[in-house]
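Students often ask what a holo structure prediction actually looks like on paper. The answer is less mysterious than it sounds. You provide the chain, you provide the ligand, and the output is a string of discrete structure tokens encoding the 3D arrangement of the protein together with S-adenosyl-L-homocysteine.
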Amino acid sequence: MGKVRLKDLTFDQLTEYLCSLGLSKFRGRQVFEWLYKGVTSFDEMTNLSKDLRTQLDTLCEITSLEIVKKQVSSDGTIKYLFRLEDGETVESVLMDYKHGHPICISTQVGCNMGCKFCASTIGGKVRDLSPGEIIDQILFAQKDSGVTVSNIVLMGIGEPLDNYDSVMTFIRNANHYAGLNIGARHISVSTCGLTHGIDRLAEEDIPVTLSVSLHAPNDELRNTLMPVNKKYPIKELMKSIHSYIKKTNRRVTFEYSMIDGVNDGIEQAKELLKLTKGMLAHINLIPVNKVKGKEYSKSNPDRIEKFRTVLEQGGVTTTVRRSLGSDIEASCGQLRRENSPLKNLSE
Ligand code: SAH
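The corresponding structure tokens follow.
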């Protein structure tokens, strides 16, 4: 039997596991705290006896990531390409804001959702990440950069709600007072719109922030940009979002990538307004990032401003996302592909 990967367990599961080895309950908290301080060996757990450290080392594993590539932008954004233990790679982006350090992390190796403008989905999903592999991106980015992460966004490679259980374990450990102790409100889950996942999340009783990648205000257009819409059309999606808001009383964010001449017209702004008016919601307009091998280009600032004005005048708060790290192509998915043997397959 393989070793137990401790960062894949919740606080309660870890405590239960250690108790099953005959240890006292308080060991659970001690070990849990060390794990999320970012130790890489049991020897660093100095409040455990030498014998206990040796015992744990024979039974358990503390996973780690290797930095394959690191790009630092002139604005302070750092993009990491991490190698997982099986050789697969994922990307994470650590940002440098005046008020803190958000990190954008991956939840899967590749993605099956097929969004037409997205680099992460080229080549499909290879596998899900485990809870430990998700949190390791934060631990190793912190270790390397010396900063403490303040906010987490699950907007890297992958669809979080397509890896639901691992993502929930990760969220609970990131949120736990003895773990990373990051407030649930500072954790954003972004989805392309898997309604069953949104419905489940509403029942979790953990006030994370939900972001929905909408990108189009009607099924006809959304079907062409996001194949997932054929399975979960806008009407159904909005129904789940409405019940999510009702249940949690949390504001939902809609992500809307502005693609030149595709979804950025006044008519579409009006349709989007109709869809979101009166909701406890916020819209984020994001000039689409250029992806090698994809033909989409970003809307010009003037068009974005006109689009935004329609929404604002209709009473829906709308911001245009500042693009950080554009000199290092900080949007996720591109670095992994550049370093992948699959690189030339779809170019
Ligand atoms: N699968 C999840 C989270 C990962 S994608 C989701 O779909 O929300 C994170 C965000 O980046 C999504 O809003 C996605 O639509 C957006 N995105 C993907 N490719 C992009 C690109 N080339 N330019 C701008 N945003 C992009």
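The chain has two domains: 4-61, 66-344.
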